Amino acid sequence: MTLTDWLYQATRKLSRESAEQVRREIQEHYESARDTALACGSTSEQADRQALAALGDPRSANFEYRRVLLTAAEAKILRGGNWEAKAFCAHGTLRRALTAIPALALIAAIAFFATGRIELAKIALAAVVMTGLLFAAPLLPVYTAPRARIFRLVKWAAIAGAFALIMGADAMKMSWLIFSSLWPIAWIEWTRTSIRRKLPVARWPKQLYL
Amino acid sequence: MNFKGTLPTLILEALLHEPTHGYRIAQSIKARSHGVLDFKEGTLYPALHKLEQDGLVDSYDAVEKGRQRRYYRITDGGRATLAKDRAEWTALSRAVTTILGEA
């Protein structure tokens, strides 16, 4: 095995930026180890072998690196979220149209309640919660880690509440439907949690707060 | 010897007196343990990144012998964590030594 092979295995599934960081620090380490071996009288070949052996198993290193550095999948979610946020913030008309949806849903819910159509009113109220979280949240002043934690707590409680509102007494019976339709959101949320652990708060984009 | 859980503490100890780079941290741990703690150096950097994420060390670039290097230094939080870890380790090792000494 050569250093290139070692680095290839150690950087598998890491984001481009993370992989570059790993290559830089391991290369630096390898050269120091090689210099020390050469200074102790080893031949060039022996020095290469010793320096590589000291690094250990690249798969173990890769496992450890993936726990602390951004993976390619996490970087993709960050990029995707940045694109959505930019599109949302850069187009005033789009922003106004999207933020009007929860307001319209609220008006509809009030109207349905007023006319006695309770089931429709519940659905409209659930739509207020869901679209409000989706479209109005980026406008909220959630830009510190403690506020973000509170917001996320409220968000999940509101999502659960919205489903309970729609399903009523059948919520438990239909839980399989809720879980299967929510799992993509849950997966993204799980990935974001992992990203939050890895990125310093100062580098969080707005979407990580939400 | 398997000492995976204690690697972060050993890194903090290696950084206690002066900032240094990864290779020197690894050599310091091996030398001070007289070769007993012979760990795989590829796992040193993930541990350093974790410590950095937790705010226990910070890093900066510097040049040594014409070579660009990443240096790590312990923070005040790192010193406090090291003091706590040292106290816990002393209590634990004393307890284990007492039990094993009874056998």
Description:
The complex is a heterodimer of chains A (210) and B (103). With 210 residues, chain A is mainly alpha-helical. Chain A folds into two domains: 3-68, no CATH class; 74-209, no CATH class. Helix content of chain A is 80%, strand content 0%. In chain A, helix 2 packs across helix 3, helix 5 packs across helix 9 and helix 6 (92-114) runs antiparallel to helix 7 (118-136). The longest helix of chain A is centred in the N-terminal third of the chain and has 24 residues, at 16-39. The model of chain A has no long low-confidence stretch (mean pLDDT 85). Chain B is α+β, with helices and mostly antiparallel strands. A three-stranded antiparallel beta sheet of chain B has the order 1-3-2. Chain B has a single domain, classed as Winged helix-like DNA-binding domain superfamily/Winged helix DNA-binding domain (Arc Repressor Mutant, subunit A, Orthogonal Bundle), CATH 1.10.10. Chain B has four helices and three strands; from the N terminus they run H-E-H-H-E-E-H. The chains are: A mainly alpha (210), B alpha+beta (103). Chains A and B meet through helix 2 and helix 4 of A and helix 2, helix 3 and strand 3 of B.
